[in-house]
Write a structure and sequence with these properties.
Layout: H1 3-59, H2 62-73, E1 78-85, E2 91-95, H3 105-109, E3 117-124, E4 127-136, H4 139-189, H5 203-238, H6 248-259, E5 265-272, H7 274-282, H8 284-302, E6 308-312, E7 317-323, H9 327-347, E8 356-362, H10 369-385, E9 390-392, H11 403-416, E10 419-428, E11 434-445, E12 448-451, H12 452-461, H13 465-478, E13 489-492, H14 495-498, H15 501-512, E14 520-525, H16 526-531, H17 533-545, E15 549-555, H18 564-568, E16 572-575, H19 578-581, H20 589-601, E17 605-608, H21 614-620, E18 627-628, E19 636-637
Parallel strand pairs: 8-9, 11-13, 13-14, 14-15, 15-16, 16-17, 17-18
Antiparallel strand pairs: 1-2, 1-4, 3-4, 5-7, 5-8, 6-7, 10-11, 10-18, 10-19, 11-12
């Protein structure tokens, strides 16, 4: 029970006790007064009637005596009158049955008034003439008591309701600061640090508000310090100190993560021997400054061409990972890179198109990390040996379909909902139970099955992401996949869906009209959060308001603040696969621990991804993660 209700109930009870006490006192006093009044009236009537009957009794006039008694009896205040003549013992009786108007019978049956009677002897001198017995009629008492009681109840009820209303308004006004304190405490418990509360005028509550504001500031500083710790550890472990670019360790983790996901793209490796010439001419300080400026220019010029990861992997070697890029886009990226390098070479006083080489390898199906590194290195070595600026590694694998063919096949599959499904279980670490199942889709073209890694790059390239997501969400609900198990089904949303307002409206309407939304969870890529935070905030609100849940996929991959977790409030985060591939000797667990502490501090479930075998999972056990997934438990085919 809330404090408001407790105080309200206390005041209600006290007021009720006072009202009942006053009503009881008023009732008993009225009852006593009416009883005494009836007794007094009975005495007066008995004395008066006795005096008036003396002449008639002396004369033996029975008719006169009856006339006098009838006059008195017809007043209606007497139930019975008995007159006994002592001369001959004759007795006359006058009766009036107890019938009371405008008073309920149940009230009369309560018997608040006892029978009141008065017996007297009528004398003439020393001679006794008759006995007179008069019994009072209680009608007057009941009538007066009933009307007094009903009037009192009416007045008290009006005052009672008015007092309750005033007490409610008054308590609401008095306890308003306390309600605000409670709401602020709940927000702090959920790690939401809003603006400070305004101190109230009540001195006791003012001290509490000041204490809460101070506590909120301290907790906010703690979480900000955790975020800053993550940034510092990233710079220490994953960033090259000279160029400010990711280092070799980060690039290797991203390569493993990239090849483990449905994607396309290319890997470039460049060797800049002209930086050695800068070193020999001007010293290491100028060389380091040149590397820093070169890194800034490459990031500025190349990010506009295609999404990529640029890393410094050795003193004069750089790697460029292009994700989601076709060969045509990779060529454009390469030409921009060459132009940027030549500009910086000219500024350093060296000759353009000399003393640097680039090797490129395009990702193909079933390519492993060692394969693509070997292919890229071979291309680099060949470019250096042949004194060329760049060289493409020629793969014998031919492209299955053209872009237009993929458009045709994908559009038909989305329209007809011809996708096949697998799901991969996510297991809790503390007990062997499934907490959710992540859904994967496959496509059957001309009798051949294609996994998501083969066609998803074309889905993004052809801007079919939101249409595909609609198709998959509708299909799993229509086919009853959410009802096959008690665990939620996780659906990966594409980048296109995150920023598509039409998809937002459709999803809101679909979830509103769908039962069992609590078994639907949506994975949102962390890169999408950084690229369009407002759109992600909108779609997360839609998901949460309709009873579903969402989480952040590839958590920790991007170099940026974790403050978005405060705003989005996801139910879980899936740690990026790259953390599962970092060499334990090279990569301290401090970064991973700090990253997970940020999520754990916000009471967010932590899921480790990319687990292939038990030793990998054992490395994360000291970090107290909640769940894990990977090919240690491979995806299972779903029969539709």
């Amino acid at each position: 029970m809330t404090l408001f209700r407790q105080i309200y109930s206390l005041l209600f009870g006290l007021f009720l006790v006072v009202v009942i006490s006053l009503a009881y006192v008023q009732f008993t006093q009225t009852q006593s007064f009416l009883t005494k009044q009836m007794e007094s009236d009975l005495n007066n009537t008995s004395n008066s009637l006795g005096i008036m009957l003396v002449p008639e009794l002396e004369a033996g006039d029975i008719v006169g005596a009856e006339t006098l008694i009838n006059v008195i009896f017809e007043g209606g205040y007497y139930r019975e009158i008995k007159l006994t003549w002592l001369v001959d013992g004759k007795q006359q009786v006058w009766e009036n049955p107890v019938t009371i108007q405008d008073v309920p019978q149940w009230f009369i049956d309560l018997g608040f008034f006892d029978t009141i009677s008065r017996e007297s002897t009528i004398t003439s001198g020393w001679l006794q003439l008759a006995k007179l017995e008069i019994t009072a009629h209680p009608g007057f008492g009941y009538n007066e008591l009933w009307h007094t009681l009903t009037n009192a109840i009416t007045v008290i009820s009006i005052l009672f309701l008015l007092a309750i209303l005033l007490a409610r308004i008054g308590l609401s006004w008095i306890l308003k600061p306390l309600h605000e304190i409670a709401q602020h405490a709940i927000e702090i418990a959920h790690r939401k640090f809003g603006p400070d509360m305004k101190p109230p005028k009540t001195s006791e509550l003012k001290a509490v508000v000041i204490a809460f504001n101070s506590m909120s500031h301290q907790l906010k500083k703690i979480f900000n310090s955790l975020d800053e710790e993550v940034s510092e550890l990233r710079k220490k472990n994953l960033v090259d100190q000279v160029s400010g670019l990711p280092n070799r360790q980060y690039m290797m983790g991203r390569l493993n993560s990239w090849l483990g996901e449905p994607d396309s793209g290319s890997l470039m490796m460049a060797k800049f021997d002209w930086l050695e010439e800068v070193h020999s001419k001007y010293g290491y300080q100028v060389r380091d400054e040149t590397i820093r400026l070169l890194a800034e220019k490459m990031q500025q010029q190349l990010d506009a061409i295609a999404p990529s990861v640029i890393a410094r992997i050795a003193a004069y070697e750089f790697a460029f990972l292009l994700t989601g890029a076709e060969k045509e886009q990779s060529n454009k990226y390469l030409q921009t890179l060459i132009r940027t390098i030549n500009q910086e070479i000219s500024k350093a006083g060296c000759k353009p198109n000399e003393h640097f080489a680039i090797g490129i390898a395009h990702r193909s199906e079933h390519t492993t990390v060692s394969d693509i590194l070997a292919q890229t290195d071979n291309a680099l070595q060949k470019a250096t040996a042949e004194n060329k600026i760049f060289h493409w590694f020629e793969s014998n694998e031919k492209q299955l379909y053209s872009r237009e063919q993929w458009r045709e096949y994908l559009s038909a599959a989305i329209t007809n909902k011809n996708f096949l499904f697998k799901w991969q279980p996510v297991y809790l670490t503390n007990k062997h139970e499934v907490t959710q199942r992540e859904l994967y889709c496959q496509l059957n073209i001309n009798g051949k099955e294609f996994h998501a890694g083969q066609f998803m790059p074309y889905v993004e390239l052809l801007s079919l992401g939101s249409l595909l997501d609609r198709c998959l969400i509708e299909t799993i609900v229509e086919k009853g996949l959410v009802q096959r198990n008690n665990e939620p089904v996780a659906i990966n949303l594409t980048y296109h869906s995150l920023s598509d307002p039409d998809f937002h409206r459709w999803l809101n309407k679909f979830l509103r009209n769908t039962a069992m939304t609590h078994r639907l969870v949506f994975d949102i890529p962390e890169a999408g959060v950084y690229s369009d935070p407002e759109a992600c905030q909108a779609i997360c609100s839609i998901i949460r308001d309709n009873g579903a849940q969402f989480g952040i996929d590839h958590f920790g991959r991007q170099f940026g603040s974790m403050a978005y977790l405060h705003d989005l409030r996801p139910s879980y985060v899936k740690l990026d696969q790259s953390f599962a591939y970092y060499d334990e000797q090279e990569h301290s667990s401090e970064l991973c621990r700090a990253l997970l502490n940020v999520a754990r501090g916000l009471d967010i479930q932590i899921i480790v991804t990319g687990i292939q075998e038990q030793p990998q999972l054992s490395r994360f056990e000291p970090l107290n993660v909640n769940a894990y997934m990977g090919y240690i438990y491979p995806p299972q085919k779903i029969e539709l």
